[in-house]
Write a structure and sequence with these properties.
heterodimer, A: 444 residues, mainly alpha, B: 466 residues, 5 strands, 68% helix
């Protein structure tokens, strides 16, 4: 029985113009954005590889590069907007990455600012969710409107079976569309020789598609619920579209604005003052050492102790400044988390923040990069001491180790379990509501 | 005609979508007002603080030129948040943009909730929602036949429907604008000056011209396609394509098409150029001293300064060329995005509000003009203009067995009276300037209107109304 209903539903959908048009639009936008993003990734990858080859660190300037993420071709996140390079010395660590031209000179922000990412994740978040609304808005209301609901229920079909059948039929169509769009984008990505997925990427991608399915299921549940509740299909569609606009376009933005106003960040001046205050205790001693050091250089003789002392002081100042920057960075994270928390009523925001985690294009990957930068700096400080203690050893010293730990898929999952849980809760809640509303429904 | 408009308008005003539109308008414009008030008072106090600081400490080694925040940010923010708050000016017209205040780069990128955004995204969508059923809905219900059996021309009927959509949107928009303006006026009454209100009026008209094209688009598909839900689906596809796809991908597409070297390629050029243009020249000095071409200490110092200055000029030029190329790429991105009427509206709204790239360019021009005045002042006071350098050198060269210590030159502070230090003032674009620079965008919007109106009317006249 159930099978018959499901089969009938699926066939109905596949024949319908709205499905064909929706799928066509989805595929066109997914293909367009993927092709563009792959080309962009190619350029960034070439730059990164050439930089690693040709702009190597010397004994003073340590150039560290952030590789572009291969999954940014599908889930762009912040991969393009965060800079790809950072240059440290034992005397200083910049607070964040910049473009290849370095701090102050870099223009990488200029082109990308103001343009949001249009990628496969966007297609799922906006286009496919819209298609779901269109598929499901009249699942029940249309049958009631046209009077067929009565007839179906006059057969020996229990209501719960009918709803389950309708539900599964539509759901399979949605998952099928998602699968087709994902497969097409994936083929477009993988047909390029410079792109290779490791097992980690495959796992992440599969989980991401699962996440997309869950996200679309939430909208599906919501649409069914409204469809049961509202008798006129046109009215149901209107209500759903308003909800869609609110949940996807308006609410997440209001969350960010609210967080920015509720959680104030210190100004640039305050930050400078904090740094000055943190450096204050060492300032007198530092001046003395540096004066002696400059005198020594002029005379052409710097004692081992003096050299070491000046190096240690420079490193200490860098570390103290870095601590203030880190404190500020934590505030940025806290503000972002607040915005996330406020926005988490919106399935779109939940989907978004989990998606970038799987694409390695969110802040998690960036932060582990920056932590590794700090570890690299610590090594550099130790190595630079050799300049004054053992010059030969300094020259022979191996290159600094710099390995950004790759987040395991399990860790990514652990970081996003709450998003999964909330999405699953929303999906179940909407289905339960749709179910009970349907059982109580007056079918005449 | 009047009857049609009245009937349609009443239908709209009673509809769910209008109620929601009105609610959304109230919330969004109120948030817009409050956010702007916060932002503006912050920006303004920062600006005043900085300017007084500069005025109290005139310097011949370098100065800061700050940009006054636009009081019309609430209309069209125009990327001002990301743009420079001013320029760090050093002698020899060396300019470095000062980044905007600390922004949380970890936050999800969200568009600014200015009027332009609310109109271009939210209102355009609601115009679609108000208009998609105009023909197809009546056809589905069978009322279209009935209506046309009366002595009402098709042209008139469609015009009436069109005007009713525009009027409904205009009512909601007007309510929103007034709310936003009241909030702003409570905190900054000065913002509501006559010139600013004129700009508001122009933006309102522009917004209607923009929304009108979506009304025509809706009517066109509504007359073309029989089923209302399909009409809506197609319209929403257009909306996503215009409002998101084109503007969001134009940056990347411009990158593909422009011949600008990537930032990495540029970075790779810089190192060798500095080596060739600056350090090699300095090193050559030592050879020339050895050969005996430079005999006195004065000659050596002069040659060193000259070599260093010339070399630096080359590097500065390299940077300037790159900056120009990046600017051109940004311009190209804008041109590409103009395929979308949403972008046309955004840019012309920025022009009317006096913000956006045109205002950035104007400010930069003012800064460049001032940099020449600044150099003249230094020349008059100090006798020569010495540029600041990001690279320092300090070498000691032997001359006749005696070491001479050579150092990169750096600008000196004038110790005398600096009461005639030149004052920087920026010129703000007038509304007329804005309209002139936005002329093509506005013309583009009108063209969209004409084309879509033609399509809508011809589709409706040919439509089978049974």
């Amino acid at each position: 029985m159930l099978k018959t209903i499901i089969k009938r539903e699926i066939l109905e959908y596949l024949k319908s113009a709205k499905f064909l048009i929706g799928l066509g639009i989805t595929l066109a936008l997914a293909a367009g954005s993927t092709v563009i993003n792959v080309q962009d990734y190619k350029g960034r990858l070439q730059d990164y590889q050439s930089a690693m080859q040709e702009m190597k660190s010397d004994s003073f300037y340590i150039h560290l590069y952030r590789p572009p993420q291969v999954l940014s071709t599908l889930i762009q996140g912040k991969d393009r907007t965060l800079g790809n390079s950072i240059t440290i010395t034992y005397m200083g660590i910049p607070p964040r990455t910049s473009g290849y031209m370095g701090e102050g000179r870099s223009q990488h922000q200029r082109l990308v600012s103001g343009f949001a990412a249009f990628d496969f994740a966007f297609v799922v978040r906006v286009v496919l969710s819209l298609m779901v609304v269109f598929i499901a808005y009249n699942a029940v209301s249309e049958e009631k409107f046209s009077g067929t609901l009565k007839m179906i229920l006059s057969n020996r079909v229990p209501r719960d079976q009918l709803l389950l059948g309708k539900l599964l039929g539509g759901w399979f169509v949605i998952l099928g569309s998602l699968a087709v769009a994902a497969l097409m984008s994936l083929i477009l990505v993988l047909s390029h020789s410079f792109i290779a997925f490791g097992p980690g990427e495959w796992a992440r991608l599969l989980i991401f598609i699962g996440l997309s399915a869950l996200y679309l299921t939430v909208f599906y549940g919501l649409s069914l619920f409204v469809s049961v509740l509202v008798d006129r299909p046109a009215a149901a569609l209107m209500i759903l579209l308003q909800a869609w606009v609110f949940l996807i376009v308006i609410y997440p933005n209001l969350g960010v604005i609210a967080a920015e106003n509720l959680f104030k960040l210190p100004s640039q001046e305050q930050l400078e003052q904090q740094k000055a205050a943190a450096l204050q205790p060492y300032e007198a001693e530092y001046k003395k050492v540096m004066e002696a050091f400059v005198q020594g250089v002029r005379k052409g003789e710097v004692s081992k102790e003096l050299g070491l002392r000046s190096e240690e002081f420079a490193a200490l100042r860098a570390d103290v400044t870095h601590k203030v920057d880190e404190e500020y960075d934590r505030k940025l994270t806290a503000q972002t988390k607040l915005a996330r928390a406020i926005s988490s009523l919106s399935p779109a925001a939940l989907f978004d923040q989990a998606a970038v985690q799987y694409g390695r294009t969110g802040m998690a990957q960036y932060e582990s990069f920056m932590r590794e930068v700090y570890r690299c700096w610590q090594q550099d400080v130790e190595r630079s001491k050799l300049i004054y203690t053992d010059r030969e050893a300094f020259k022979r010293a191996p290159a600094l180790a710099f390995r950004v730990p790759v987040e395991s898929t399990a860790d990514a999952f652990a970081a996003t379990w709450l998003d999964w849980l909330l999405l699953a809760f929303l999906a179940l809640a909407f289905f339960a509501l749709a179910y009970t509303a349907f059982l109580k429904k007056d079918v005449r | 005609m009047k009857t049609i408009i009245r009937k349609e308008l009443l239908d709209h005003l009673r509809s769910v979508q209008f109620a929601v539109l009105l609610a959304a308008t109230l919330v969004l414009f109120a948030v817009n007002g409050f956010v702007f008030v916060q932002q503006y008072s912050h920006l303004n106090s920062d600006y005043r603080l900085h300017v007084t600081e500069v005025e109290q400490h005139p310097s011949t080694t370098g100065t800061f030129l700050y940009r006054s925040p636009s009081p019309l940010l609430f209309m069209a923010e125009g990327g001002e948040k990301n743009g420079p708050t001013g320029y760090d000016l050093r002698p020899k017209q060396a300019l470095a943009a000062m980044p905007a205040g600390p922004r949380n780069f970890k936050m999800p990128e969200i568009p600014d909730l200015d009027w332009a955004f609310i109109i271009k995204i939210v209102f355009s969508l609601y115009v679609i929602l108000l208009g998609f059923e105009a023909v197809s809905g009546e056809k589905e219900r069978g009322t279209l036949r009935l209506m046309l059996s009366n002595p009402v021309g098709r042209l008139r009927l469609l015009t009436g429907k069109y005007l009713a959509i525009i009027l409904s949107a205009a009512i909601a928009l007007l309510v929103g604008l007034i709310i936003s303006l009241i909030i702003v006026a409570v905190f900054f009454p000065a913002v509501l000056s006559l010139p600013n209100l004129t700009r508001v009026a122009f933006l309102f008209v522009l917004a209607l011209a923009y929304l009108s094209l979506f009304a025509f688009l809706s009517l066109f598909f509504s007359a073309l396609i029989t089923r209302s839900s399909l009409v809506l689906l197609v319209l929403l596809a257009f909306w996503i394509f215009f409002a998101f796809f084109i503007p969001d991908t134009s940056g990347i597409i411009a990158q593909e098409f422009s011949k600008v070297p990537s930032e990495y390629e540029m970075a790779k050029l810089v190192g060798p150029t500095i080596q060739k243009e600056v350090w090699d020249r300095i090193n050559k000095l030592q050879d020339r001293i050895k050969k005996g071409e430079l005999k006195t200490e004065k000659d050596i110092r002069e040659e060193a300064d000259l070599a260093y200055e010339e070399g630096q000029d080359r590097v500065r030029k390299l940077y300037a060329d790159y900056d120009n190329a990046v600017q051109q790429r940004a311009d190209l991105a804008q041109i590409i995005s103009r395929v979308s009427p949403v972008a046309l509206f955004q840019y012309s709204a920025e022009d009317i509000g006096g913000t956006g790239p045109a205002a950035d360019a104007r400010f930069l021009q003012d800064v460049r003009d001032f940099s020449r005045i600044y150099d003249d002042y230094i020349l008059k006071r100090m006798g020569k203009v010495v540029g600041t350098s990001p690279w320092n050198f300090a070498i000691s060269v032997p001359l006749n067995g005696k070491p001479i210590f050579l150092q990169s030159p750096y600008p000196q502070e004038y110790q005398g009276d600096k009461s005639d230090f030149p004052r920087f003032s920026e010129t703000k674009a007038t509304l007329l300037d804005g309209l002139m620079s936005g002329l093509w965008d506005i013309a583009g919007l009108l063209l969209w209107n004409i084309i879509l109106a033609g399509l809508a009317f011809s589709a409706f006249i040919r439509a089978d109304v049974r």
